[in-house]
Amino acid sequence: MSNYVIKGDSLSLIKKKIDSLIKENHYDDASISTYDLDEDSISSLIEDADTISFLTVNKVIIGYNLSDEALSDSKHLNTLNKYLDNPNSDVLLFFTISNLDMRKKVNKELLNKLTVINLSNSPLEIIKDALKDFQVERRVLNLLEEYYKDDLERLLKEIDKLKVASLPSKKITVSLADELLIKPLNDQENLTFSLVRAIALKDKKEALTIYQELLNYNILSYSILGLLESQYRLLYQVIILKKRGISQPDIAKILDVHPFRIKKTLELVSFYTLGEVRKFLKKMALIDYNIKSGIYEDNITIDLLILNIK
């Protein structure tokens, strides 16, 4: 059967599977037409499938987002069923599923006329399959799953990056992964907290590394300065309240801040005095003024702040 329906959450994986099936069916030189069934009608797609191609004998036709809405018009549904009962042997037809109720009788009957392919949504299975021809240290698999389990598109991009960097040896080590993989920015405050801690420890190298992580996510230096100011202002308030003997839960209530953020901020208290925090707040206020006055370039402000740690 040369008519397929592919189900999966990653568009990149779907496209790779389609490319693989095109090669497998020897349709490499075929003309390719694509339809978005959220906008295009199924009848238009079928009309294309029934039309003889003037450029090549074979054709590949891809209908993205086959859904209940796309099939709601009985005319389109009947046209598709009629075609699938007697498909064009020169056409390799693909559909991708989007919001299709598999319990409906009409949908079940339709899918019985197609080769159904369910792509795995398990990050670990996707990683293992993508790297099956490579020698990979186990920890690399763990890092990829940990970092990108909720973003399959990003996962595939990072895997491709590792594959290219490991050539020609095809050996992917933890050190290579640590060097190339960009940690996901699940929580800006966590990275900002780490940056404040590195500054407190006068660890310029670590501070610059964390700063670069934030930049990798296209966060402007000026925005990072705002995050730092927010964290230092909170730290200043927490130090004062802690000196008054107020408990962690009560500090969170008084400042109307999530208890976890207060907990993390309290971990910084031992590294700073009130005077040091005031000093940093004044430094950042001056940097902010100089940026707005055109004296400083935005992209060097945090670098200067970190490099001038004493």
CATH topology annotation of the largest domain? Zinc Finger, Delta Prime, domain 3
The stretches of 5 or more residues where confidence is low (pLDDT under 50) are: none
Global shape: elongated
CATH class call of the largest domain: Mainly Alpha
Number of contiguous helices = 15
Helix content: 55-70%
Count of β-strands? 7
Mean pLDDT: 86
Class from secondary-structure proportions: alpha/beta
Biggest sheet, open or closed, and with what strands and sense? 5 strands, parallel
Question: What count of domains describes the coordinates?
Answer: 3
- The whole-angstrom Rg is 28 Å
Secondary-structure element order, as H and E? EHEHEHEHEHEHHEHHHHHHHH
CATH architecture of the largest domain: Up-down Bundle
- Gap between N and C termini: 71 Å
Q: How are the strands of the biggest sheet laid out side by side?
A: 2-3-4-1-5
Percent in strands? 5-15%
List its traits.
3 domains, two-stranded parallel sheet, alpha/beta, five-stranded parallel beta sheet, 310 residues, Helicase, Ruva Protein, domain 3, Zinc Finger, Delta Prime, domain 3, Rossmann fold, 15 helices
Brief overview:
The chain has three domains: about 5-120, Rossmann fold; about 125-180, Helicase, Ruva Protein, domain 3, CATH 1.10.8; about 190-305, Zinc Finger, Delta Prime, domain 3 (Up-down Bundle), CATH 1.20.272.10. The chain has 15 helices and seven strands. It has helices at about 10-25, 40-50, 75-85, 105-110, 125-130, 140-150, 150-165, 175-180, 190-200, 205-215, 220-245, 250-255, 260-265, 275-290, 300-305, and strands at about 5, 30-35, 60-65, 90-95, 115-120, 135, 170.
